[in-house]
Amino acid sequence: MLKHAVSQVQHKEMKNYLPDIHKNTTEVPIKLRTFVELTMDVTSASPRRYFFEVMSYFATAEHEKERLQYFASPEGRDDLYKYNQKERRTVLEVLEDFPSVQMPIDWLVQLVPPLKTRAFSISSSPLAHPNQVHLTVSVVSWTTPYKRKRTGLCSVWLAGLDPQQGIYIPAWFQKGSLPRPPPSVPLILIGPGTGCAPFRGFVEERAIQSSSGPAAPIIFFFGCRNEDDFLYRELWLSHSLNDGVFSEAKGGGFYVAFSRKQPQKVYVQHKMLEQSQRIWNLLLSKASIYVAGSATKMPSDVWSTFEEIVSKEGEASRDSAANWLKALQRAGRYHVEAWS
Ligand SMILES: Cc1cc2nc3c(=O)[nH]c(=O)nc-3n(C[C@H](O)[C@H](O)[C@H](O)COP(=O)(O)OP(=O)(O)OC[C@H]3O[C@@H](n4cnc5c(N)ncnc54)[C@H](O)[C@@H]3O)c2cc1C
Ligand SMILES: NC(=O)c1ccc[n+]([C@@H]2O[C@H](COP(=O)([O-])OP(=O)(O)OC[C@H]3O[C@@H](n4cnc5c(N)ncnc54)[C@H](OP(=O)(O)O)[C@@H]3O)[C@@H](O)[C@H]2O)c1
């Protein structure tokens, strides 16, 4: 049992490095294993440079000490970046690579990256699913420059849960950057990949609203690699039929860009340009724009595409189109929620 989160530092020469940890002790007993699982990211995040410096003090094998000192030095900065951050080396992996290092728990508690919370957009409408919150989570995986397979900590953990076994997941709500649109506002939605998450809720909500009164149309630009990651395919297609919120009869539309189905990339921006006039007409009808998904390049590419559309359809210069869009943003009609 760990009565205090940290105890007295025993290594005198190291004392100067530690902040005043004794103020933050807890009196509640907690198992060491639970403490580590709930607070310390040992299997996902990479340690910082300082971690290597401290490791070098505890290394008993001379060659390990030398290597760690090199990593901690200004000359070793680039090699440390290649070994550590670029490879997304985890604390556990680093400790395994330097087996002579026996770092005391006091130090690990201080230096291991804290376990971070993850945010997810709510992808259900409370009208359609009272007392439930649905999430749309992409299982993150990639290959490092040295061809090591890496996976996302939280998304893989969520994907591995067994829905049959009730499990308690600590969660809370935080106001997002996409306000809930009133039914009278036409919507232009851009959500490639998991960016479709918040729009699933919007579409469910508008479908319910439109069954009991007038509701403005929605056009939605979705993007995925191919048919295999075509999230909620049936849902979107069903809303495109007959009286659905995406139906042409209602002034709506659903457009999907498959990026890897053909030799050249097709993204949501390409589909938007094909619908340039419809987008412009909806903007003139006081539509709001919502963009969600990967933060890497997509939001700025989509912004440029809107600039191009406004410039072409509004017969304005590119600068005037950009200013027009900025005014739209200030008026609360251009919203972005993006993540990496
Ligand atoms: C407001 C908001 C809303 C969000 N909504 C959603 C949502 O609805 N659905 C959803 O799936 N996610 C959403 N996210 C992202 C989510 O919070 C997590 O970041 C995501 O699930 C990954 O978490 P993880 O623990 O699985 O991965 P982690 O263990 O945190 O690993 C992810 C990290 O790995 C690295 N990485 C990932 N891919 C690569 C690559 N190809 N090359 C190099 N490095 C890479 C990056 O550093 C990345 O930050 C949202 C984020 C925010 C801020
Ligand atoms: N293993 C898998 O099969 C798989 C499948 C989906 C997601 N994932 C994981 O989940 C994470 C998040 O996935 P996600 O579905 O939210 O997003 P994503 O897969 O990163 O992207 C969704 C779609 O957006 C496209 N895209 C890329 N750059 C764009 C740009 N600048 N503008 C417009 N569209 C662009 C992608 O095309 P391109 O990727 O073809 O460029 C893809 O078709 C990914 O990082 C990945 O690790 C894995």
UniProtKB/TrEMBL annotation:
Report domain Oxidoreductase FAD/NAD(P)-binding positions: 189-298
Give the superkingdom in one word: Eukaryota
Is Oxidoreductase tagged as a keyword?
yes
Cited InterPro entries: CysJ-like_FAD-binding, Flavoprot_Pyr_Nucl_cyt_Rdtase, FNR_nucleotide-bd, NADPH_Cyt_P450_Rdtase_alpha, OxRdtase_FAD/NAD-bd, Riboflavin_synthase-like_b-brl
Q: Which GO terms describe its molecular function?
A: oxidoreductase activity
Q: According to its UniProt record, what is one Pfam family this protein matches?
A: NAD_binding_1
Listed cofactors: FAD
Residue ranges of every copy of the Sulfite reductase [NADPH] flavoprotein alpha-component-like FAD-binding domain listed in the record: 15-157
Q: Which UniProt keywords apply?
A: Cytoplasm, FAD, Flavoprotein, FMN, NADP, Oxidoreductase
Q: What name does UniProt use for this protein?
A: FAD-binding FR-type domain-containing protein
Species of the source? Citrus sinensis (Sweet orange)
Q: What is the lineage of its organism?
A: Eukaryota, Viridiplantae, Streptophyta, Embryophyta, Tracheophyta
